[in-house]
Amino acid sequence: MSEEKKTDDHDGSAAPSGKNPLLVVLVLVNTLAVCAIGFFQFQNHKKLNSVTTAADVMQQQVAGEGHGEAGGEKAAGGEGGEKAAGGEGGEHGGGAAKESSVKTDGLMYPIDPFTANLAQGDGPKRYIRISLVLKFTKETKKEEVDARKPQISDAIISMLNAKKPEELLKREGKEYLKEEIKSAINNFMIDGHLEDIFYVGFQIN
Question: What is the CATH number of domain 106-204?
Answer without folding.
Answer: 3.30.479.30
